[in-house]
Amino acid sequence: MIDVFPEAATIEDGELLLGGVSAEALAAEHGTPLVVYCEATLRRRARALAAAVDGGRVFYGVKAFANVALLRLLREEGIGADVASEGELAFARAAGLGAEELVVHGNAKDERFLAAAAAAGSPVVLDAPDEAPLAAEAGVRQTLVRVTLGVDADTHEAIRTGHHGSKFGLPPDRALTLLADALAAGIDVLGLHVHVGSQMADFDAQEETIRRLAAFAGRCRAELGWVARVADLGGGFGIRHHPNDRVTDAVQLATAAAVTARASFAQAGLAEPEVWLEPGRSLVGPAGVTLYRVVSVKRLPGRTWVAIDGGMSDNPRPQLYDARYTALSALRADAPADEVVSVAGMHCESGDVLIDDVALPGARRGDLLAVPATGAYTLAMASNYNGVGRPAAVLVRDGAVTAIRRRETVDDLLALEA
Ligand code: LLP
After folding, report:
1. Residue 172, domain member (yes or no)
2. pLDDT grade, residue 142 (50/70/90)?
Protein backbone atom coordinates (compact mmCIF):
# COMPACT_ATOMS: atom_id res chain seq x y z
CA MET A 1 0.00 0.00 0.00
CA ILE A 2 2.91 2.32 0.61
CA ASP A 3 3.40 2.46 -3.18
CA VAL A 4 0.60 5.01 -3.58
CA PHE A 5 2.37 7.30 -1.10
CA PRO A 6 4.86 9.92 -2.28
CA GLU A 7 8.45 8.82 -2.68
CA ALA A 8 9.66 10.46 0.51
CA ALA A 9 7.18 8.49 2.68
CA THR A 10 8.82 5.99 5.02
CA ILE A 11 7.85 3.96 8.05
CA GLU A 12 10.12 4.09 11.08
CA ASP A 13 9.38 2.38 14.39
CA GLY A 14 5.83 1.84 13.17
CA GLU A 15 5.25 5.49 12.42
CA LEU A 16 4.68 7.16 9.06
CA LEU A 17 7.20 9.84 8.12
CA LEU A 18 6.65 12.23 5.21
CA GLY A 19 9.75 13.90 3.83
CA GLY A 20 11.57 12.77 6.96
CA VAL A 21 9.03 14.39 9.33
CA SER A 22 6.78 12.29 11.53
CA ALA A 23 3.11 12.47 10.62
CA GLU A 24 2.26 13.01 14.29
CA ALA A 25 4.65 15.97 14.53
CA LEU A 26 3.06 17.51 11.43
CA ALA A 27 -0.44 16.99 12.84
CA ALA A 28 0.53 18.33 16.27
CA GLU A 29 2.15 21.45 14.82
CA HIS A 30 -0.27 22.26 11.99
CA GLY A 31 -3.53 20.61 13.06
CA THR A 32 -5.74 18.26 11.05
CA PRO A 33 -7.01 17.79 8.40
CA LEU A 34 -3.66 18.71 6.89
CA VAL A 35 -2.52 18.28 3.29
CA VAL A 36 1.17 17.41 3.19
CA TYR A 37 3.02 17.80 -0.12
CA CYS A 38 6.26 15.94 -0.82
CA GLU A 39 8.65 18.30 -2.59
CA ALA A 40 10.78 15.48 -4.03
CA THR A 41 7.74 13.94 -5.73
CA LEU A 42 6.60 17.31 -7.11
CA ARG A 43 10.00 18.10 -8.58
CA ARG A 44 10.58 14.64 -10.01
CA ARG A 45 7.18 14.58 -11.72
CA ALA A 46 7.59 18.13 -13.00
CA ARG A 47 10.99 17.36 -14.51
CA ALA A 48 9.77 14.14 -16.11
CA LEU A 49 6.68 15.77 -17.63
CA ALA A 50 8.70 18.74 -18.87
CA ALA A 51 11.12 16.33 -20.55
CA ALA A 52 8.24 14.33 -22.09
CA VAL A 53 7.22 17.19 -24.42
CA ASP A 54 10.75 17.36 -25.80
CA GLY A 55 11.02 21.04 -26.67
CA GLY A 56 7.33 21.76 -26.15
CA ARG A 57 5.75 23.41 -23.12
CA VAL A 58 4.02 22.20 -19.98
CA PHE A 59 1.43 24.32 -18.19
CA TYR A 60 0.22 23.18 -14.76
CA GLY A 61 -3.60 22.96 -14.64
CA VAL A 62 -3.95 25.34 -11.69
CA LYS A 63 -7.50 24.10 -10.96
CA ALA A 64 -5.93 20.98 -9.40
CA PHE A 65 -4.69 23.19 -6.53
CA ALA A 66 -4.14 26.93 -6.82
CA ASN A 67 -1.20 27.68 -4.57
CA VAL A 68 1.50 30.29 -5.00
CA ALA A 69 4.30 28.25 -3.41
CA LEU A 70 3.54 25.22 -5.60
CA LEU A 71 3.37 27.41 -8.71
CA ARG A 72 6.79 28.88 -7.86
CA LEU A 73 8.27 25.46 -7.26
CA LEU A 74 6.89 24.10 -10.54
CA ARG A 75 8.14 27.19 -12.36
CA GLU A 76 11.65 26.39 -11.13
CA GLU A 77 11.26 23.11 -13.02
CA GLY A 78 10.20 24.88 -16.21
CA ILE A 79 6.43 24.50 -15.82
CA GLY A 80 3.98 27.32 -16.63
CA ALA A 81 0.30 27.53 -15.72
CA ASP A 82 -3.07 26.91 -17.36
CA VAL A 83 -5.51 29.31 -15.71
CA ALA A 84 -9.28 29.24 -16.11
CA SER A 85 -10.45 32.22 -14.06
CA GLU A 86 -9.34 35.65 -12.95
CA GLY A 87 -8.51 34.17 -9.56
CA GLU A 88 -6.26 31.47 -11.00
CA LEU A 89 -4.59 34.10 -13.17
CA ALA A 90 -3.92 36.18 -10.04
CA PHE A 91 -2.34 33.16 -8.28
CA ALA A 92 -0.05 32.58 -11.27
CA ARG A 93 0.92 36.26 -11.44
CA ALA A 94 1.58 36.27 -7.69
CA ALA A 95 3.95 33.35 -8.25
CA GLY A 96 5.84 35.48 -10.77
CA LEU A 97 4.73 33.74 -13.96
CA GLY A 98 5.00 35.93 -17.04
CA ALA A 99 3.03 36.21 -20.28
CA GLU A 100 4.83 33.36 -22.02
CA GLU A 101 4.35 31.01 -19.10
CA LEU A 102 0.56 31.14 -19.09
CA VAL A 103 -2.33 29.89 -21.17
CA VAL A 104 -5.83 31.17 -20.46
CA HIS A 105 -8.91 28.94 -20.58
CA GLY A 106 -12.62 29.02 -19.92
CA ASN A 107 -15.87 28.08 -21.60
CA ALA A 108 -17.47 31.22 -20.15
CA LYS A 109 -14.97 34.07 -20.14
CA ASP A 110 -16.60 37.41 -19.47
CA GLU A 111 -15.22 40.73 -20.73
CA ARG A 112 -13.47 41.35 -17.45
CA PHE A 113 -11.57 38.06 -17.59
CA LEU A 114 -10.67 38.62 -21.25
CA ALA A 115 -9.33 42.07 -20.33
CA ALA A 116 -7.26 40.54 -17.50
CA ALA A 117 -5.91 37.91 -19.91
CA ALA A 118 -5.05 40.63 -22.43
CA ALA A 119 -3.29 42.65 -19.73
CA ALA A 120 -1.26 39.57 -18.80
CA GLY A 121 -0.28 39.30 -22.48
CA SER A 122 -0.88 35.55 -22.53
CA PRO A 123 -2.43 33.33 -25.20
CA VAL A 124 -6.15 32.77 -24.77
CA VAL A 125 -7.88 29.56 -25.82
CA LEU A 126 -11.01 30.59 -27.73
CA ASP A 127 -13.94 28.39 -26.77
CA ALA A 128 -17.19 30.19 -27.58
CA PRO A 129 -18.67 31.06 -31.01
CA ASP A 130 -18.69 34.84 -30.45
CA GLU A 131 -15.40 35.04 -28.60
CA ALA A 132 -13.06 36.11 -31.43
CA PRO A 133 -14.27 39.74 -31.77
CA LEU A 134 -14.61 40.05 -27.97
CA ALA A 135 -11.04 38.86 -27.49
CA ALA A 136 -9.79 41.25 -30.19
CA GLU A 137 -11.65 44.13 -28.58
CA ALA A 138 -10.20 43.26 -25.17
CA GLY A 139 -6.71 43.46 -26.69
CA VAL A 140 -5.87 39.75 -26.74
CA ARG A 141 -3.11 39.20 -29.30
CA GLN A 142 -2.46 35.46 -29.31
CA THR A 143 -5.00 32.66 -29.24
CA LEU A 144 -5.65 28.98 -29.78
CA VAL A 145 -8.96 27.45 -30.85
CA ARG A 146 -10.47 24.66 -28.76
CA VAL A 147 -12.02 21.92 -30.83
CA THR A 148 -14.16 19.04 -29.59
CA LEU A 149 -13.59 15.97 -31.70
CA GLY A 150 -16.26 13.57 -30.47
CA VAL A 151 -14.16 11.08 -28.54
CA ASP A 152 -15.54 9.56 -25.32
CA ALA A 153 -12.86 9.18 -22.68
CA ASP A 154 -13.10 6.11 -20.45
CA THR A 155 -13.51 8.02 -17.20
CA HIS A 156 -16.30 9.27 -14.92
CA GLU A 157 -18.86 11.10 -17.05
CA ALA A 158 -18.53 14.31 -15.02
CA ILE A 159 -14.93 14.66 -16.14
CA ARG A 160 -15.29 13.72 -19.83
CA THR A 161 -14.87 16.73 -22.07
CA GLY A 162 -14.13 15.68 -25.65
CA HIS A 163 -17.45 13.99 -26.48
CA HIS A 164 -20.11 15.22 -28.92
CA GLY A 165 -22.31 17.81 -27.23
CA SER A 166 -19.69 18.81 -24.65
CA LYS A 167 -20.00 22.24 -23.07
CA PHE A 168 -16.31 22.78 -23.89
CA GLY A 169 -14.90 23.87 -27.22
CA LEU A 170 -16.75 23.58 -30.50
CA PRO A 171 -17.24 20.73 -32.97
CA PRO A 172 -15.05 20.90 -36.11
CA ASP A 173 -17.36 22.93 -38.42
CA ARG A 174 -18.03 25.52 -35.75
CA ALA A 175 -14.39 25.60 -34.63
CA LEU A 176 -13.42 26.31 -38.24
CA THR A 177 -15.77 29.31 -38.27
CA LEU A 178 -14.34 30.52 -34.96
CA LEU A 179 -10.84 30.21 -36.42
CA ALA A 180 -11.88 32.18 -39.51
CA ASP A 181 -13.44 34.87 -37.28
CA ALA A 182 -10.26 35.13 -35.22
CA LEU A 183 -8.11 35.49 -38.34
CA ALA A 184 -10.55 38.09 -39.72
CA ALA A 185 -10.30 39.99 -36.42
CA GLY A 186 -6.53 40.17 -36.95
CA ILE A 187 -5.62 37.93 -33.98
CA ASP A 188 -2.65 35.58 -34.22
CA VAL A 189 -3.96 32.03 -33.83
CA LEU A 190 -1.03 29.91 -32.67
CA GLY A 191 -2.71 26.56 -32.85
CA LEU A 192 -5.43 24.17 -31.76
CA HIS A 193 -6.42 22.89 -28.34
CA VAL A 194 -8.05 19.67 -27.20
CA HIS A 195 -8.71 18.28 -23.73
CA VAL A 196 -10.29 14.85 -23.78
CA GLY A 197 -11.11 14.26 -20.13
CA SER A 198 -9.52 13.84 -16.73
CA GLN A 199 -8.21 10.84 -14.78
CA MET A 200 -7.66 8.85 -17.98
CA ALA A 201 -5.99 5.51 -17.23
CA ASP A 202 -4.72 4.74 -20.73
CA PHE A 203 -3.87 6.37 -24.04
CA ASP A 204 -6.81 5.17 -26.17
CA ALA A 205 -9.06 8.25 -26.15
CA GLN A 206 -6.17 10.65 -26.41
CA GLU A 207 -4.61 8.75 -29.30
CA GLU A 208 -7.86 8.83 -31.28
CA THR A 209 -8.30 12.53 -30.47
CA ILE A 210 -4.79 13.40 -31.62
CA ARG A 211 -5.34 11.60 -34.94
CA ARG A 212 -8.58 13.52 -35.45
CA LEU A 213 -6.81 16.72 -34.44
CA ALA A 214 -4.19 16.25 -37.15
CA ALA A 215 -6.95 15.64 -39.71
CA PHE A 216 -8.71 18.80 -38.52
CA ALA A 217 -5.48 20.79 -38.74
CA GLY A 218 -5.19 19.54 -42.34
CA ARG A 219 -8.70 20.80 -43.01
CA CYS A 220 -7.86 24.22 -41.51
CA ARG A 221 -4.93 24.53 -43.87
CA ALA A 222 -6.92 23.35 -46.90
CA GLU A 223 -9.94 25.59 -46.25
CA LEU A 224 -8.37 28.67 -44.67
CA GLY A 225 -4.73 28.45 -45.63
CA TRP A 226 -3.92 28.62 -41.94
CA VAL A 227 -1.20 26.43 -40.39
CA ALA A 228 -1.25 25.30 -36.76
CA ARG A 229 2.11 25.90 -35.11
CA VAL A 230 1.01 24.61 -31.70
CA ALA A 231 -0.90 21.46 -30.69
CA ASP A 232 -2.11 21.93 -27.12
CA LEU A 233 -3.24 18.47 -26.01
CA GLY A 234 -4.63 19.52 -22.59
CA GLY A 235 -4.17 17.40 -19.48
CA GLY A 236 -6.03 14.41 -18.17
CA PHE A 237 -3.34 11.86 -17.34
CA GLY A 238 -4.63 9.66 -14.54
CA ILE A 239 -3.01 8.73 -11.25
CA ARG A 240 -3.36 5.83 -8.81
CA HIS A 241 -5.40 6.70 -5.72
CA HIS A 242 -5.68 3.12 -4.49
CA PRO A 243 -3.28 0.15 -4.59
CA ASN A 244 -5.71 -1.75 -6.87
CA ASP A 245 -5.87 1.04 -9.49
CA ARG A 246 -4.38 0.20 -12.87
CA VAL A 247 -3.25 3.42 -14.53
CA THR A 248 -0.52 3.91 -17.11
CA ASP A 249 2.16 6.22 -15.77
CA ALA A 250 1.53 9.87 -16.66
CA VAL A 251 5.02 10.39 -18.04
CA GLN A 252 4.48 7.53 -20.49
CA LEU A 253 1.10 8.96 -21.47
CA ALA A 254 2.57 12.44 -21.93
CA THR A 255 5.45 11.11 -24.02
CA ALA A 256 3.05 9.07 -26.16
CA ALA A 257 0.85 12.15 -26.65
CA ALA A 258 3.75 14.32 -27.80
CA VAL A 259 5.20 11.65 -30.09
CA THR A 260 1.81 10.80 -31.60
CA ALA A 261 0.98 14.46 -32.22
CA ARG A 262 4.21 15.08 -34.11
CA ALA A 263 3.83 11.85 -36.12
CA SER A 264 0.14 12.44 -36.92
CA PHE A 265 0.76 15.98 -38.15
CA ALA A 266 3.67 14.75 -40.27
CA GLN A 267 1.50 11.97 -41.73
CA ALA A 268 -1.11 14.57 -42.63
CA GLY A 269 1.60 16.43 -44.54
CA LEU A 270 1.79 19.18 -41.92
CA ALA A 271 4.80 20.66 -40.18
CA GLU A 272 5.47 19.15 -36.74
CA PRO A 273 3.71 21.33 -34.18
CA GLU A 274 5.14 22.51 -30.88
CA VAL A 275 3.39 20.32 -28.31
CA TRP A 276 1.82 21.88 -25.21
CA LEU A 277 0.42 19.88 -22.30
CA GLU A 278 -1.66 20.98 -19.32
CA PRO A 279 -1.35 18.31 -16.62
CA GLY A 280 -2.96 19.12 -13.29
CA ARG A 281 -3.65 15.97 -11.30
CA SER A 282 -0.60 14.04 -12.51
CA LEU A 283 1.74 16.82 -11.34
CA VAL A 284 0.44 17.39 -7.82
CA GLY A 285 -1.97 14.56 -6.96
CA PRO A 286 0.53 11.83 -6.04
CA ALA A 287 2.61 14.31 -4.02
CA GLY A 288 -0.18 15.05 -1.52
CA VAL A 289 -1.17 13.09 1.58
CA THR A 290 -4.04 14.20 3.82
CA LEU A 291 -3.76 13.59 7.55
CA TYR A 292 -6.95 13.24 9.61
CA ARG A 293 -7.49 12.63 13.31
CA VAL A 294 -9.86 9.83 14.27
CA VAL A 295 -12.56 11.33 16.46
CA SER A 296 -14.89 8.43 17.12
CA VAL A 297 -15.21 4.70 16.46
CA LYS A 298 -18.57 2.88 16.36
CA ARG A 299 -18.54 -0.91 16.07
CA LEU A 300 -22.03 -1.83 14.85
CA PRO A 301 -23.25 -5.21 13.63
CA GLY A 302 -21.96 -5.50 10.05
CA ARG A 303 -20.06 -2.21 9.93
CA THR A 304 -17.47 -0.30 11.87
CA TRP A 305 -17.46 3.47 11.44
CA VAL A 306 -14.22 5.32 11.97
CA ALA A 307 -15.14 9.02 12.00
CA ILE A 308 -12.53 11.65 11.21
CA ASP A 309 -12.26 15.41 11.66
CA GLY A 310 -12.80 16.15 7.95
CA GLY A 311 -14.67 14.65 5.03
CA MET A 312 -16.61 15.99 2.08
CA SER A 313 -15.67 19.58 2.93
CA ASP A 314 -11.99 18.88 2.26
CA ASN A 315 -12.40 16.07 -0.28
CA PRO A 316 -15.72 15.88 -2.14
CA ARG A 317 -14.37 13.46 -4.76
CA PRO A 318 -16.01 10.28 -3.38
CA GLN A 319 -19.40 12.02 -3.63
CA LEU A 320 -18.75 13.65 -7.03
CA TYR A 321 -16.89 10.94 -8.91
CA ASP A 322 -17.24 7.75 -6.82
CA ALA A 323 -13.53 8.16 -6.12
CA ARG A 324 -11.94 5.37 -4.11
CA TYR A 325 -9.16 6.07 -1.61
CA THR A 326 -7.14 4.11 0.88
CA ALA A 327 -5.72 5.00 4.29
CA LEU A 328 -2.83 4.07 6.50
CA SER A 329 -2.87 4.22 10.28
CA ALA A 330 0.00 6.67 10.61
CA LEU A 331 0.94 5.90 14.23
CA ARG A 332 0.73 2.12 13.85
CA ALA A 333 1.75 1.82 10.23
CA ASP A 334 3.30 -1.63 10.52
CA ALA A 335 0.72 -3.21 12.85
CA PRO A 336 -1.45 -5.92 11.22
CA ALA A 337 -4.40 -4.27 9.46
CA ASP A 338 -6.92 -6.79 10.71
CA GLU A 339 -10.19 -4.86 10.86
CA VAL A 340 -12.12 -3.68 7.81
CA VAL A 341 -13.76 -0.34 8.55
CA SER A 342 -15.56 2.52 6.80
CA VAL A 343 -14.06 5.99 7.18
CA ALA A 344 -16.84 8.51 7.78
CA GLY A 345 -16.57 12.27 7.48
CA MET A 346 -17.83 14.66 10.17
CA HIS A 347 -20.57 16.25 8.03
CA CYS A 348 -24.28 15.98 8.63
CA GLU A 349 -25.23 13.55 5.91
CA SER A 350 -25.00 9.82 5.38
CA GLY A 351 -23.27 10.25 2.02
CA ASP A 352 -20.24 11.80 3.68
CA VAL A 353 -18.10 8.67 3.56
CA LEU A 354 -14.46 9.11 2.55
CA ILE A 355 -13.61 5.41 2.25
CA ASP A 356 -16.14 2.57 2.09
CA ASP A 357 -13.79 -0.13 3.21
CA VAL A 358 -10.21 -0.16 4.29
CA ALA A 359 -8.33 -2.52 6.56
CA LEU A 360 -6.75 -0.83 9.59
CA PRO A 361 -5.22 -2.04 12.83
CA GLY A 362 -8.08 -1.84 15.41
CA ALA A 363 -8.94 1.86 15.13
CA ARG A 364 -9.33 4.04 18.21
CA ARG A 365 -10.01 7.66 19.03
CA GLY A 366 -6.87 9.79 18.61
CA ASP A 367 -5.43 7.68 15.77
CA LEU A 368 -4.03 9.51 12.80
CA LEU A 369 -5.08 8.43 9.30
CA ALA A 370 -2.98 9.23 6.24
CA VAL A 371 -4.85 9.26 2.91
CA PRO A 372 -2.45 9.27 -0.07
CA ALA A 373 -2.86 10.66 -3.60
CA THR A 374 -4.90 13.61 -2.36
CA GLY A 375 -2.81 16.48 -3.72
CA ALA A 376 -5.17 17.35 -6.60
CA TYR A 377 -8.80 18.50 -6.59
CA THR A 378 -9.18 18.19 -2.81
CA LEU A 379 -8.23 21.53 -1.21
CA ALA A 380 -9.05 23.06 -4.61
CA MET A 381 -12.65 21.92 -4.26
CA ALA A 382 -12.91 22.27 -0.47
CA SER A 383 -15.92 24.05 1.00
CA ASN A 384 -17.04 25.51 4.31
CA TYR A 385 -19.90 23.05 4.70
CA ASN A 386 -21.06 22.84 8.32
CA GLY A 387 -19.09 26.01 9.09
CA VAL A 388 -15.78 24.20 8.76
CA GLY A 389 -12.63 26.11 7.82
CA ARG A 390 -10.65 24.72 4.92
CA PRO A 391 -7.48 22.81 5.86
CA ALA A 392 -3.88 23.98 5.88
CA ALA A 393 -1.19 22.68 3.54
CA VAL A 394 2.53 22.18 4.09
CA LEU A 395 5.48 21.18 1.96
CA VAL A 396 8.00 18.68 3.35
CA ARG A 397 11.53 17.89 2.28
CA ASP A 398 14.51 16.29 4.06
CA GLY A 399 13.09 16.91 7.51
CA ALA A 400 12.09 20.53 6.80
CA VAL A 401 8.49 21.74 6.78
CA THR A 402 7.21 24.86 5.00
CA ALA A 403 3.65 26.08 5.51
CA ILE A 404 2.21 26.86 2.07
CA ARG A 405 -1.35 27.63 3.07
CA ARG A 406 -2.78 28.43 6.49
CA ARG A 407 -5.89 26.85 7.93
CA GLU A 408 -9.09 28.87 7.63
CA THR A 409 -10.48 29.78 11.04
CA VAL A 410 -14.03 30.34 12.23
CA ASP A 411 -13.08 34.04 12.46
CA ASP A 412 -12.25 33.98 8.74
CA LEU A 413 -15.73 32.64 8.08
CA LEU A 414 -17.43 35.13 10.41
CA ALA A 415 -15.55 37.98 8.72
CA LEU A 416 -17.67 37.42 5.59
CA GLU A 417 -20.94 37.92 7.44
CA ALA A 418 -22.75 41.23 6.96
N1 LLP B 1 -6.68 21.55 -19.27
C2 LLP B 1 -8.01 21.76 -19.32
C3 LLP B 1 -8.55 22.57 -20.39
C4 LLP B 1 -8.83 21.20 -18.34
O5 LLP B 1 -10.14 21.39 -18.39
C6 LLP B 1 -8.26 20.43 -17.30
C7 LLP B 1 -9.09 19.86 -16.25
C8 LLP B 1 -6.88 20.25 -17.29
C9 LLP B 1 -6.11 20.82 -18.30
C10 LLP B 1 -6.18 19.46 -16.23
O11 LLP B 1 -6.62 18.14 -16.20
P12 LLP B 1 -5.90 17.05 -15.28
O13 LLP B 1 -4.54 16.80 -15.84
O14 LLP B 1 -5.85 17.57 -13.89
O15 LLP B 1 -6.79 15.86 -15.39
N16 LLP B 1 -12.44 17.96 -10.34
C17 LLP B 1 -12.21 16.78 -11.15
C18 LLP B 1 -11.27 17.05 -12.30
C19 LLP B 1 -11.75 18.14 -13.23
C20 LLP B 1 -10.80 18.42 -14.36
C21 LLP B 1 -11.21 19.63 -15.10
N22 LLP B 1 -10.35 20.02 -16.15
C23 LLP B 1 -11.67 15.66 -10.27
O24 LLP B 1 -11.52 15.86 -9.08
O25 LLP B 1 -11.45 14.56 -10.75
Report:
1. yes
2. very high
Q: How many domains does the chain have?
A: 2
Residue ID of nearest Cα to ligand 1 atom 22: 198
The pTM score is 0.98
Atom of ligand 1 nearest to the CA of 59: 9
Digit-coded pLDDT (tens) for 153-202:
888 888 888 888 889 999 999 999 999 999 999 999 999 999 999 999 99
Cα 99 from Cα 324, distance rounded (Å): 38
Q: Tell me, what's the pLDDT at 155? A: 86
Of the candidates 226, 229, 253, the residue with the CA atom closest to the CA atom of residue 240: 253
What is the C-alpha separation between 9 and 2, in angstroms, rounded? 8
| Same domain for 318 and 183 | no
Query: Of 293, 385, 403, which Cα lies nearest the Cα of 32?
Result: 293
- Measuring from atom 23 of ligand 1, which residue has the nearest CA? 377
Active site residue 220: no
- Using CA atoms, how far apart are residues 350 and 358, in angstroms rounded to an integer? 18
Q: How many residues does the chain have?
A: 418
Whether 375 is in the pocket of ligand 1, judged by its Cβ within 6 Å, is no
List b or e across 309-333, with b for residues whose CB sees 16 or more CB atoms inside 10 angstroms. bbbbbbbbbbbebebebbbbbbbbb
- Mean pLDDT over the full length of the chain: 97
Q: Tell me how far apart the alpha carbons of residues 257 and 263 are, in angstroms, rounded to a whole number.
A: 10
Domain match, 153 and 236 both: yes
Dihedral class, residue 47 (left if φ above 0, else alpha if ψ from -120 to 50, else beta): alpha
Does residue 166 have its Cβ closer than 6 Å to ligand 1? no
pLDDT at 48 over 80: yes
- List the beta strands (DSSP E) in 324-381: 328-329, 339-344, 353-360, 368-372
pLDDT of residue 1: 53
| pLDDT per residue as tens digits for the range 221-248 | 999 999 999 999 999 999 999 999 999 9
- Determine whether the shortest distance from the Cβ of 236 to ligand 1 is under 6 A: yes
Are 238 and 311 in a shared domain? Answer: no
